[in-house]
Specification:
This is Carbon monoxide dehydrogenase subunit G. This protein has 265 residues and is of the alpha+beta class. It is built from 7 helices and 9 strands, in the order E-H-H-E-E-E-E-E-E-H-E-H-H-H-E-H. Strand 5 and strand 6 form a beta hairpin.
Length: 265
């Protein structure tokens, strides 16, 4: 699946490019990620992820498929797998920097392929979650550039269906590894993340706020306090609650009507 984002940082294109090409430094800005080795031809690292009671540690490597310092464009290919065999992840990331007023604009296209537990989530959920994680990344980058807390500049998702409810499936059944329907996707989520839901009730009860880059303090909440793992539950559950609340409400209403009808008999 392709995930497309754009964002701006308050610095020159040259300075932003220098930071983005410092893989060890910029890698630390992604929640849960650690760059363990940087080589001339690539890099290695790990990403710790928690989803309620499920803990995953992805380890992998990546390399520059293409890099043009003059044009400020790079293509990075990375692959990794969970050490416990819970799944694999691969991505080809294309980044292009360009001037934007007094700052630098980054256009990022990620061709993402995942297997295992994370693959149960549909493209729309993946897009929303990646939006939230990229907001955290941008906030950290702004801090690295000396801007202190994030200024509130937005991360834009240019995918046409980003932030919209998932449409009802049409056509032939999806291929293996994809949810057969929205409700199946929801039930799959409940099976693997029900424990996480209990700990996130407070955050999902509040109305969804408009998308904006979180402050550095709020960004830290995405990482587990003990080991720096990415708390995917805090990113995924509000998204699912927002997307599927109408479906859940309709299901509850149907059950209630059936129960009342039964009592009247």
């Amino acid at each position: 699946m392709d995930l497309t984002h754009s964002f701006t940082v308050p610095t020159s294109v040259d300075e932003a490019w220098s930071l983005f090409m410092d893989l060890e430094k910029v890698g630390s800005c992604f929640p849960g990620a650690t760059v363990t080795e940087v080589r001339d031809d690539g890099f290695s690292g790990t990403v710790k992820v928690k989803l309620g009671p499920i803990a995953m540690l992805y380890s992998g490597s990546g390399s520059f498929v293409e890099r043009d310092d003059d044009a400020k464009m790079a293509v990075i290919e990375a692959k990794g797998k969970d050490k416990r065999g819970n799944g694999t992840a691969g991505a080809t990331v294309t980044i292009q920097l360009s001037p934007d007023g007094s700052g630098a604009r980054a256009d990022v296209v990620t061709d993402l392929a995942v297997t295992g537990k994370p693959a149960q989530f549909g493209r729309g959920v993946m897009q929303d979650v990646s939006d939230k994680l990229l907001q955290a990344f941008v906030a950290c980058v702004e801090k690295q550039l000396g801007g202190g807390e994030a200024s509130g500049g937005g991360v834009t998702s240019t995918s046409p269906d980003a932030g919209q409810p998932a449409p009802a499936p049409t056509g032939p059944p999806p291929s293996a590894g994809e949810p057969a329907s929205v409700m199946e996707e929801e039930s799959e989520f409940v099976e693997t993340a029900s424990d996480a839901l209990a700990s996130d009730t407070a955050s999902t009860a509040a109305p969804a706020a408009p998308k904006a880059v979180p402050t550095v303090g709020r960004v830290a909440a995405l990482a587990d306090d003990d080991d720096g793992a990415l708390d995917l539950g805090s990113a995924v559950i509000p998204v699912l609650a927002r997307r599927y609340a109408p479906l859940a409400g309709a299901a509850v209403a149907g059950i209630l009507v059936g129960w009342l009808a039964g009592r009247r008999r």
